[in-house]
Amino acid sequence: MIESLHHLPHAAGTHDALSEHFTDLAPPLTARQAAIESARCLYCYDAPCTRACPTGIDVASFIRNIHDGNVEGAAVNILKQNIFGGACSRVCPTEILCEDACVRNHDAEGQPVKIGLLQRHAIDNAHFTSHPFQRAPATGKTIAVVGAGPAGLSCAHRLAMLGHDVVVFEARDKAGGLNEYGIAKYKLPGDFARQEVDFLLSIGGIEIQHGRTLGSNLHLQDLHTRYDAVFLGLGLGASRRLGLTGEDAPGLMAAVDYIATLRQAQDLTALPVPRRAVVIGAGNTAVDMAVQIGRLGADEVTLVYRRGVDAMSATGHEIEIAKMNGVRIRTWAAPHEVLLDDGGRVRGMRFEETRLEDGRLAGTGTFVDIAADAVFKAIGQHMDNDALSDPLARELERAGDKINVDARFRTRLPGVYAGGDCVAPGQDLTVQAVQHGKLAALAIHDDILSKTEA
Fold this sequence. Notes:
Elements: H1 15-19, H2 31-38, H3 48-52, H4 59-67, H5 71-79, H6 85-91, H7 98-101, H8 115-125, E1 142-146, H9 150-161, E2 165-170, H10 178-181, H11 192-201, E3 206-210, H12 220-226, E4 229-232, E5 238-239, E6 252-254, H13 255-264, E7 276-281, H14 284-295, E8 300-304, H15 316-324, E9 328-330, E10 333-340, E11 346-357, E12 360-371, E13 374-378, E14 381-382, E15 398-399, E16 402-404, E17 416-418, E18 423-424, H16 430-453
Parallel strand pairs: 1-2, 1-4, 2-3, 4-17, 6-13, 7-8, 7-13, 8-9, 16-18
Antiparallel strand pairs: 5-14, 10-11, 11-12, 15-16
Helix pairs in contact: 2-4, 4-5, 4-8, 5-8, 6-8, 9-16, 13-14, 14-15
């Protein structure tokens, strides 16, 4: 955890000055800009942007609402498909989804309609006097949801809309999952994540119990017995290991742990900041970590990946953000050895240069050392094995460390469903987790009604 870096100096400057580095990545549209941008939309009858949206938001419809001056209508159009529409407008990789599919995204015009910013404009400027969705008549059924992240809360909200009561079990002190703990602070600044959760819960019928961890003080067997259905939105909470000697030395830690601490910090000057940092990984989390440690004051930040740029899972947009923030990207280098000083603390990493041989990654036998006061690993997450340790949970069919589900997010155990990052297949996107939760809720509702009618 963050204790691994306590030997490092704290961030320089004042909290207020550092906070200026973690405001919104992109400024919001003004009303005038939103009107002009919405007028660019052609309102395509086949709407390729809608087909590209994992949650199926009717993009053309909500943009037309904005053009007509009906911001509340635009927001309702978004939220009825994606209750996390505010967060997704900020963190969703629109450049490879809806905006990539936009018919204006061609050489002659040069850029698509700014769908993400228009979605943000609608959500941020809608003023509801009450929750925009009403609960259906009570069904008398209660569903257990494990995990208060985007998948779990999306499932809970849709179930509440359908008239069910929901009890959400969450291990941490706050709800929101990665939106609260794992997204770069400059993407979801301030307490936006908490406000979005509060709005979601205002529909009623949803209770959250904190400090409840599956495999510890919560067991699937008990939930299966006590509730009418169970949804598992477990996420992937454990960081993968490098498998190198010295991995637990002071100065080496998981990027997600530092990001979580940064997001919860009341005083940014209390955070330890290395002068030289190395981030190992190729995804958006690696970029988030590299950019943020630079904004906190690190002099040198190097992101290292074992393959080429084309193989990086971070989007091109994210990679450009890294470059604009002074992050050096070193590719074709695989971690080989943790370098320690005389006190047993990290002083750098040794990497072996790599190449492709017959389509497979191979070491070249050439090594390069990169000096660092701290190394952050962002090489992926896996499921905590303790979560599925009780006898019933062990009956879940899994592919590696992910749970297998059918097309309606049913596991092999009757009455147990799963979605989000913990299921296979998945893209580990917030917007996809929201859709999983929504579709699982519809499946739970249909299955419960079928049993009742039978």
